[in-house]
Structure formats: C-alpha cells, structure tokens
Design goal:
The protein is α/β, with parallel strands linked by helices. It has one domain (26-334): D-Maltodextrin-Binding Protein, domain 2, CATH 3.40.190. 48% of the residues lie in helices and 18% in strands. It has helices spanning 2-24, 41-56, 74-83, 115-123, 125-132, 176-184, 197-202, 213-218, 244-247, 252-286, 296-307, 310-317, 319-334, and strands at residues 28-33, 61-66, 88-92, 139-149, 151-154, 169-172, 188-191, 208-211, 227-230, 235-243, 290-293. The strands form 3 sheets. A 5-stranded mixed beta sheet has the order 2-1-3-10-4. Strands 8-5-9-11 form a 4-stranded mixed beta sheet. Helix 2 packs antiparallel against helix 10. The longest helix is centred in the C-terminal third of the chain and has 35 residues, at 252-286. The structure holds (2R,3S,4S,5S)-2,3,4,5-tetrahydroxyhexanoic acid. (2R,3S,4S,5S)-2,3,4,5-tetrahydroxyhexanoic acid binds next to strand 3 and strand 10.
Length: 335
C-alpha cells in the first residue's frame, strides 16, 4: 500500500516536472542574423551560440544563424527586431547610434589601448548601462562581442603620411563619429552599409575602407585592396541583441538559456577573434597586400587630428557618459 502511494506520488511528481518543462520551453525558431560571411569570426560564434541554445533547451529552441546580410544590413535587421519580424542579430554598436546616441562613445578614436581594457569596460557597469538603453528602443542587448581594432586599406597608394589620405574616397560606417573622424584626417569620407562595401571597392566607387584584420580576411578585401596601413585607430565592439517584443513573451527559463549561451558565445568569440587576428597580417601579406606601419611621428599627427572629434562625441553622448567611460578606462590603466 505504502509503496503504491509512494509510486503514485513519484509518478505525479514526474508528470508535474515534465509539464513544467514543457511550459518552460516552447518549440521556437530563432532567426539570428549577421552581416559577415559564414566563414568569419561572426559566423563561427553565431553557430556556437546556436548549438548552445539548442542543447540547453533540450532541442526546443532552434537558432538559425543567417549570415551574409541575407536578412538585411545592420540597420534593416534592427528595424526587424524592433517590429518583431526577426528574433536576434549581432552587429556593430556603431550602427545603433541613431537609436541610442550613447553607443557613439565606443567609436571614440584610441579609447581603448588593449583588448583587456575593452573587455573590462564593455563588460563592466558603464558598458551594461549603455547596453540597457536599447530596451526603450525595442531591443534587449545581451553581450558585446569583439569586432576589433580597425586598420586602413585602400587601392590607391600606401598611406605613410596624413596627406596621403587627401583624395582617398574612404567608405566609413554610417554614423557621425566615423564621418567626422575621417573628415578630420582629410579623407573624402563616404558612409555606406557594410553589405554594399565589397562591390563599392571592386567597382572603385570608393578607394578604401577600415576594418579589423579578421574582416579584411573573411570578406576577401585583399582581392580588391592593395595597401594596408596599420593604424589601430579605434576598437569596434559588436553587440548581440534580441527583439524586445519577442523577448517579453519568453519564459524565465528560455531567457536564461539565451543569456547563458550569449555569455559562452562571447568568451568563445573573443578568443577565436584574437587567435585569428594574430595570424591575419601574415595571411594578408601572403595574399599580396602591401603593409606599412605609420612612423611614430605620423601616428602622433593622426592622434592629434582625431582628438579633435572628442568634444563632439562628449556632447552627443552626454558629459556624464563620457566621464564614466573615460574613468572606467583610467581605472583599468591604473590597476
Ligand atoms: C563595418 C563593420 C561590420 C559589422 C558587421 C557587418 O565596417 O565593422 O563589419 O557591422 O557586423 O560596417
């Protein structure tokens, strides 16, 4: 008798647990869009995220990693997230500046001098605070990934002195910090979405662009760009975002699966990106790119010119955000 009760109790408990689980995880398709090719640091981390989510949700949540800007450019995907037509994406923080002006602080030239500084500040309180501003705009920011330190390429000539940039038509990301920065350097800056960049370089609609080594490799820019100048002029983060409309309909367990997998994908992505970047320069030389470093004197001239955009950034992100970010960087440097 007792055994039978105990068994019945056990069965009831198991049924309840099963029901709770079924309630916690609904079958879901998660479209996760990104702009780079499948064989890129972005693509590899997107697939790693997809595997983690599928595993942790017992196969209920299926993430479709969709690259090549097949779902649209960064700004088009953002609109799809806001409207609830797409669930997730990863893209540049720089393309979010129109929605969250504070994001422009990450585009400050020479803000970070090492990846370690970037990680600490982005993953710290001020990075979280800026990320949280997305919610009022219809998106939930999960984690920052690394795009990386940006370097300059072009098809016209080696850029050894600032003046070499003068008549170079340079594609920049679509925000004022990038536009102002390269205008300050004397280039003819042309804002374009990344999805149009390869063709623009190939047809010589523009002469040059700037992106981390990884992207110059994965997007095959070496096929259409002869000269690479090592400038490391700014560190670009990527950010993983979710449609708030969709997020609000998820259970606590589903949200946790996405959050935990996002953190794992961040750690994986940064490591993978750094390993690839360490080999990329040799790779690019092997592909025939002519690489030059700036002399210390020219690098300083560039720094000075670029510092002229800082006041404008402080104004558009607000003095408080500007001060908080710079204090966080200083704290890292003093540590
Ligand atoms: C750029 C960015 C891009 C990213 C990517 C499409 O130059 O660095 O590589 O936005 O997510 O536009």
């Amino acid at each position: 008798m007792r055994i039978r009760f105990a068994l019945a109790g056990l069965v009831a408990a198991l049924v309840a647990a099963g029901a709770a689980q079924a309630q916690d995880f609904k079958p879901r398709i998660v479209r996760f869009g990104y702009g780079l090719v499948d064989n890129s640091n972005q693509g590899r981390a997107a697939r790693m995220f997809a595997q983690e989510v599928e595993k942790a949700s017992g196969g209920k949540m299926k993430v479709r990693a969709i690259g090549n800007a097949s779902l649209g450019s960064d700004t088009q995907m953002q609109q799809a997230l806001i409207g609830g037509a797409q669930e997730m994406m990863v893209g540049s923080t720089a393309t979010l500046v129109g929605l969250v002006p504070e994001m422009a602080v990450w585009d400050t030239p020479f803000l970070f001098s090492s990846a370690k500084e970037a990680d600490a500040v982005l993953d710290g309180p001020v990075g979280d605070k800026i990320k949280a501003k997305l919610e009022a705009k219809g998106m939930v920011g999960l984690v920052y990934w690394e795009n990386g330190f940006r370097n300059l390429t072009n098809s016209k000539r080696p850029v050894a002195r600032l003046e070499d940039l003068n008549d170079i038509k340079l594609r920049v990301m679509q925000n004022n910090v990038f536009l102002d920065s390269f205008k300050a350097l004397g280039a003819n800056a042309v804002p374009l979405p990344f999805s149009e960049l390869f063709t623009a370089l190939e047809t010589r609609a523009v002469d040059g662009q700037e992106n981390p080594y990884n992207t110059i490799v994965s997007s095959k820019f070496y096929e259409v760009q002869k000269y690479l100048t090592v400038t490391n002029h700014v560190y670009s983060p990527w950010i993983v975002t979710v449609s708030k409309k969709w997020w609000d309909g998820l259970s606590t367990a589903e949200k946790k699966v996405l959050q935990d997998a996002a953190i794992k994908s961040r750690d994986f992505e940064r490591k993978d990106t750094r390993e690839e970047a360490a080999k990329a320069l040799a790779d690019l030389k092997g592909k025939g790119m002519q690489v030059n470093e700036l002399s210390a004197q020219e690098a300083n001239r560039m720094r000075e010119k670029l510092a002229s955009v800082n006041a404008g950034i402080a104004k558009s992100v607000g003095q408080q955000t500007w001060d908080e970010v710079n204090a966080a960087v200083q704290q890292m440097r003093n540590a």
